[in-house]
Q: What sequence folds into this?
């Protein structure tokens, strides 16, 4: 509602306030506020180094990985409940607002992707490879200018889902514990969720739980990106919706195909596709039926599309607040 029983703003009003602050000051806040996903990633990396041994049996690796995720989830829930308890006391709602600002990283991710465009435009491929390195799991030194631009457009779609829609969804549904559980699993998936020999079993629980938690947010993110298309120049909502129906399930990830397919269809691009990892060609399906030769200008269009979609998300939260207040 608009206000809590203790005089502070209610959860949905806090969420709207946090979304506005993130949009305006997210770059600066990213440098001073702790990132729960980053903390979870370091926790999982430490556990991985200590507990994930190749000589362990398959079952032992799965069990150990599951215990790491269970510990992480319990810590996240306990921290979320503590924040909510503090929030119920006097001006403690400010602590809850800070927790929201820690979990929402939409503007920070948007700025990092914009830096890829600027690096390509000002310096070419090598600076672009350096700028995209932290935003993709691909082997960046095998990417040309078009590959870097495609990876940046995909990163914009992923960031809209994972750094904005999913934390908003988690908080709106389950409060601060829901927000912290999502951000914890975002970090766990980044640390342990990649397929391969090392994490295939130890990271299976992290990858599965991440997929479960992101199932609805990813689809909502894809729909919002499609609905945002008419506001962006030559972007097309119809093409985005067609790509969602045709290509969303072609992505290796259970969920990431939804925002990426919407982005590809809206902008008339083909994303994903085969790519090199060192000397090995990784075969992945193309998503979207447009051109694969993405450019820095397409990164700008992707950022504009995600910004409009973020405004639609704010409108959705405001509509939910209005509905709750009217009950």
A:
């Amino acid at each position: 509602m608009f206000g809590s029983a203790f005089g502070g703003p209610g959860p949905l009003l806090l969420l709207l306030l946090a979304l506005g602050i993130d949009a305006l000051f997210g770059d600066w806040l990213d440098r001073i506020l702790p990132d729960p996903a980053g903390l979870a990633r370091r926790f999982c990396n430490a556990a991985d180094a200590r507990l994930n041994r190749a000589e362990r049996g398959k079952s032992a690796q799965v069990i150990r990985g599951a215990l790491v995720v269970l510990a992480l989830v319990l810590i996240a829930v306990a921290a979320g409940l503590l924040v909510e308890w503090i929030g119920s006391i006097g001006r403690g709602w400010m602590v809850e607002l800070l927790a929201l600002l820690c979990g929402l990283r939409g503007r920070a991710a948007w700025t990092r992707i914009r830096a890829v465009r600027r690096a390509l435009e000002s310096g070419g491929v090598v600076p672009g490879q350096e700028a995209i390195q932290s935003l993709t799991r691909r082997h960046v030194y095998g990417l040309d200018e078009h590959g870097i631009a495609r990876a940046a457009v995909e990163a914009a779609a992923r960031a809209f889902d994972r750094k904005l829609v999913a934390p908003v969804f988690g908080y709106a549904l389950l409060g601060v514990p829901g927000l912290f559980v999502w951000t914890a699993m975002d970090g766990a998936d980044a640390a342990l969720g990649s397929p391969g020999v090392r994490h295939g079993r130890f990271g299976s629980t992290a990858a599965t739980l991440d997929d479960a938690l992101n199932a609805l947010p990813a689809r909502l993110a894809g729909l919002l990106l499609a609905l945002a298309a008419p506001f962006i120049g030559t972007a097309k909502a119809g093409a985005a919706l067609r790509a969602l129906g045709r290509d969303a399930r072609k992505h290796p990830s259970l969920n990431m195909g939804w925002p990426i397919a919407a982005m590809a269809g809206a902008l008339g691009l083909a994303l994903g596709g085969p790519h090199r990892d060192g000397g090995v060609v990784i075969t992945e399906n193309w998503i979207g039926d447009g051109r694969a030769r993405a450019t820095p200008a397409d990164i700008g269009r992707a950022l504009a599309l995600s910004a409009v979609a973020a405004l639609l998300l704010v409108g959705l939260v405001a509509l939910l607040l209005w509905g709750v207040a009217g009950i």
Notes: Residues 16 and 286 are 36 Å apart (CA to CA). Strands lie at 271-272, 275-277, 280-282, 286-287. The longest helix spans residues 145-192. The first strand starts at residue 271 and ends at 272.
